[in-house]
Design a protein that fits this description.
eight-stranded parallel beta barrel, about 675 residues, 25 helices, Phosphomethylpyrimidine synthase (chains A, B), metal-binding (chains A, B), ThiC/Bza_core_dom (chains A, B), zinc (chains A, B), 4Fe-4S (chains A, B)
């Protein structure tokens, strides 16, 4: 055990993300009388030449990127929500359930090498006082705005003080995204089940976040797949690493040995909600024999994990006996592990699933700790061929039925979705889910839009994820390049997270989320003005962006040059655009508005889109904000000087013109 | 010069793609009386246990992957089309235009190190005899089915002998994709301008291919961006490397020194159509001063490149003087290099573009060599903010006008498109292009769906590319991870090509291309049956797939195991599915058809989708073809033996259950 802390401290990545500052936005006291909350975000300062204020970005990385925070993996994170939870007066402290050998899969001799127990395990844990319900949905339905809800509201606004600067331009397919998120709006979304705030009362370390169609699209990263059960350090490191790059929640899918202790290390050190699939551990407790599973063992596992602080459980209660035969003619049968465990149980006993039959008893456990349901899609398709088939949709409608049951208990619910779906079959998945599950948040794995690219399934699934996120999916479960092939390493985790973050942001843009567009515009403007450092710092992955740049351009010089080497001064795009602006200014209105386009050329709908675009351009273009069409903050003297310098280099260099580099594109 | 051959022969990658065989499908004599054609494809042989025939895949790699072919970069490729071209009796041989120093940018002293001229330059080249027109469109409109058209037809069918095995299941937005492609269908598509076959009569080395909405979606790779003008070897290598991984055409965007000689090396060794942007070279000829460009210099450049065999020219004739001011208020101005050159020229002279005014004269040149137009979108948006604005669509409608002019001359035309477009604004680009340009093939760059992920723009653009490909775009211009940051190296080229290949295939699937689905089903079935080698060999990138697999699974054993280490024998999905199938067989029809779903649960439209899916499942599932619902070719004895072996390993290994690996997915 002695080596655990050393290895852990060595391996966890801390410190600010390159070019970002940790900031905290203060809230105001809420209707529940709590003191205001402090919401962590990151700010990117721009070069003075931009004339623009810092850009605020959503920050999932927790204290690990805060230079002020002292990180001690052995002690766990500070309990941000401790007082909020206790102030509600509806919880009681009880002795934590004793850890049994089988909780760690200790049946027979342990060949795993063992895992050091977390040094700071709580002896006493919280649960709802008898007759009480501690779910955020329960408070919301009683009109209470919790500090968690206020935290979420401030967080979703990304530091905007009001809606004035919101660029609304998108197609949200009937979502109800507000210009500005208020705590009351959050309460209402949670109350009607359109959003969840997964935060177990035994995970006070978590920073509240919302998963819902009317909020920013979230992403989940999976860890704990390690075949070396004893390597807790690398699992904790993967968790910290994945939230650094943007994972909003993390699922611990650990199996096998030491599963209980591994989870404790992860939960105590996680500022984001942790999800699990309890049936995995229950299976360990019966030696891996699916047919030996019982309700009692499963329920005991739920309580064990709820006491540790797991924030949401994947439960495959929709895999019903009559649906199992519907998978018989599939190309890839049942690919969900939890789904096949339950299918196996149902067939072995020729009985209905105990998860389905005991569902209300499960609700009683969930609401005593505020663990959210993630209703698993155990019959999801595992291939393009099986997409949208009878078994998949039969289960989906059962998940809708279970959602209504959970809501009777004020339990928070999200619904898991596929999987493998070709592009033309994606939207119907969203439409059916909204209809079957009463707008409960949808949480999908991809979907992969083709099966022919193993090794690139972060991309095949990123395509489907961006699309279904646009259509209304609230959280996207990442897929790494190793999907279907092997275990993701640290690099795979980063690539998976960044890929899903860009897919989620693309969805926010397309939905017209008011806080999404400003980020793109800031980066685009930095690119146009050759503010290379701002371009890197505003990137999802500043380190990779700068590294790629420096491979072909002289590092320091090019970062400040007012053009990139591909253009040369003869037609630096910025210079030409300045000429265009001067020319435009001289034009008489007639030429500017000349109608060269046949009126039938622009159908009503399209003109609508354009109309908005034009208005937006007029009112909100960063260049305009920075000083009108005249080019704003561009320092022409400085630019001319740069031109002069480059002009010499250009002539000495043989008057070569390069392309394909910097912000200028092919042809 | 002496070292060129050595370096070249060293660097070009030859030999079969892992797991694939080069095959040739024979055609029959055509209406034009030609002998039948031999169409190259690659075949992937499956393990005998599959019971399935080899899978035929589209092959862009040319002779380089043919063990029978002798590759000599110094001599160039054999002239596949030589006799077809001459047999038409409408071409004459003329002396090739003398190469001038300025063709290679030799103004002033050469500091580039120089480039060895291609050793095998033709002294005499072909052009149409006076009064003749040698475009494929001209033949098509006269009812002639050329060998090129027959080659395309066979190629698009991927070796299928008839339409019987076609799985039709998709949304094609009004395209007219046939179950089976006939030479007559190709002729008709070319005649009406919905498809082009870019193959200059002076590029007889090329293997005919079609770009059109009713054919497989194609991808283009850009090369020639090297800042080191003398490194011809690496440019030729990049061309060969990009077609190995699936590039259907290659654009040579070389600039600066030795541009003429570099192009000759590339064209003579390319089995795919080569595209260029002639304005780049014209600009070299006037020392890089845009305002010094003249029609005479541009026309001379077109003839120079047409004689070398360039198959399509990007020409920015839609950048008209009145549109230039429309870009004044953009965040990123004009990002197309060709577009900014012409904008600069128009402003400097306050005159209409000579490309626009002399367009019919350009057509006269194009039809004398059958060079296809790729009408450039010089005013495309360079950022999310500028997408779908007035300038972009003004130019698009002018490109439509120019398309109709080119068609008067029977010139082949495709239209270039954006660029940077958020998801909700992509489809209107396709709709407007179809309407404005009379269904001429659309050729887009991405589009990128967000600007916040430099370093990952192959993915941000791959998302947009898959979507617009589904909507009807005929060819997708790749974007590499270095876009906006630097020059792509060999690895970037491969990642860009594979990413775009998977996007194009996802589009084919969604459109319901009859030849697309079989590939996914073959790989899905191999995955389900744990035929690891087949899974690798069927992948877009077999080498990466196997490498990722071997990083975590024992190489040889796992590749033949009938399950992957993540499940263990206790619930191998294949075994469970077998049980499910036996169970299902025993079920009385009543239970199978039990109606658990509220009828209002399935709106008409959705039921339609499902209906097709069900029918497809019943009639066409590979498993069905392989022997009905009983599990087909699965050898249960072999499986049991494997189970037994794994069962021992499983118990000895401490009964660990792993997940996240192989074909089983998260939860």
């Amino acid at each position: 055990m002695a080596d655990i802390p050393a290895r852990t401290e060595l391996k966890v990545t801390t410190g600010p993300i390159r070019g970002s500052r940790k900031i905290h936005v203060e809230g105001h006291s809420t209707s529940s009388g709590q003191a205001g909350v402090r919401v962590a975000m990151r700010a990117v300062d721009l070069e003075p030449s931009s004339g623009d204020p810092p850009v605020s970005l959503y920050d999932t990385s927790g204290p690990y990127t805060d230079p002020q925070a002292r990180i001690d993996i052995m002690a766990g994170l500070p309990e941000l929500r401790r007082d909020w939870i206790r102030a509600r007066g509806d919880v009681e402290e009880v002795a934590q359930r004793d850890v049994k050998p089988e909780d760690n899969g200790q049946l027979g001799p342990d060949r795993s090498g063992g895992v050091a127990p977390f040094p700071n395990v709580r002896k006493r844990v919280l649960r709802a006082r008898p007759g009480h319900n501690v779910t955020q949905m329960h408070y919301a339905r009683r009109g209470i705005v919790t500090p968690e809800m206020e935290y979420v509201a401030i967080r979703e606004n990304l530091g905007r003080q009001q809606a004035a600067d919101a660029i609304r331009d998108g197609e949200d397919f009937g979502a109800a995204i507000p210009d500005f998120v208020t705590p009351e709006f959050v309460r209402d979304e949670v109350a009607r089940g359109r959003a969840i705030i997964p935060n177990n009362i035994n995970h006070p370390e978590s920073e509240p976040m919302a998963i819902g169609r009317n909020f920013l699209v979230k992403i989940n990263a999976n860890i704990g797949n390690s075949a070396v059960a004893s390597d807790v350090a690398s699992e904790v490191d993967k968790m910290v690493w994945s939230i650094r790059w943007g994972a909003d929640t993390v699922m611990d899918l650990s199996t096998g040995r030491n599963i209980h202790d591994t989870r404790e290390w992860i939960v105590r050190n996680s500022p984001v909600p942790i999800g699990t699939v309890p049936i995995y551990q229950a299976l360990e407790k019966v030696g891996g024999i699916a047919e030996d599973l019982t309700w009692e063992i499963f329920a005991d596992t739920l309580i064990e994990q709820a006491e540790q602080g797991v924030d949401y459980f994947t439960i495959h209660a929709g895999v019903r006996l009559p649906y199992v035969p519907m998978t018989a003619k599939r190309v890839t049968g049942i690919v969900s592990r939890g789904g096949s465990i339950m299918a196996k149980w149902c067939l072995a006993h020729h009985k209905e699933s105990f998860l389905y039959e005991r569902f209300e008893e499960i609700c009683e456990i969930m609401k005593a700790y505020d663990v959210a349901f993630s209703l698993g899609d155990g019959l999801r398709p595992g291939s393009i061929s099986d997409a949208n088939d009878e078994a998949q949709f039969a289960e989906l409608y059962t998940l809708g039925e279970l959602t209504r049951t959970a809501w009777k208990h004020d339990c928070q619910v999200m619904i898991e979705g596929p999987g493998h779906v070709p592009m033309h079959k994606i939207k119907v998945n969203m439409d059916k889910q909204l209809e079957a599950c009463g707008e409960a948040p949808f949480y999908t794995l991809g979907p992969l839009v083709t099966d022919v690219a193993p090794g690139y399934d972060h991309i095949t699934s990123g395509i489907g994820a961006a699309m279904i996120g646009w259509f209304g999916t609230a959280m996207l479960c990442y897929v790494t390049p190793k999907e279907h092939l092997g275990l993701p390493d640290r690099d795979d985790v980063k690539v998976g997270v960044v890929t899903y973050k860009l897919a989620a942001h693309a969805a926010d843009l397309a939905k017209g989320h008011p806080a999404a567009r400003a980020w793109d515009d800031a980066l685009s403007k930095a690119r146009f003005e050759f503010r290379w450092r701002d371009q890197f710092n505003l990137s999802l992955d500043p380190e990779t962006a700068e590294q790629y740049h420096d491979q072909t351009l002289p590092a320091e010089g090019a970062k400040t040059a007012h053009f990139c080497s591909m253009c040369g001064p003869k037609f630096c795009s910025m210079k030409i655009t300045q000429e265009v602006r001067d020319f435009a200014a001289k034009q008489e209105a007639g030429l500017l508005n000349n109608s060269f386009v046949p009126s039938e050329g622009f159908p009503e709908r399209s003109r609508g889109v354009e109309g908005r675009e034009q208005d937006v351009g007029e009112a909100k273009s960063p260049l305009q904000k920075a000083g009108g069409a005249g080019g704003g903050p561009i320092d022409l003297a400085e630019a001319e000087a740069g031109m002069e310098a480059m002009s010499r280099a250009y002539n000495e260099g043989g008057r070569e013109l390069y392309i394909g580099q910097g912000r200028r594109e092919h042809d």
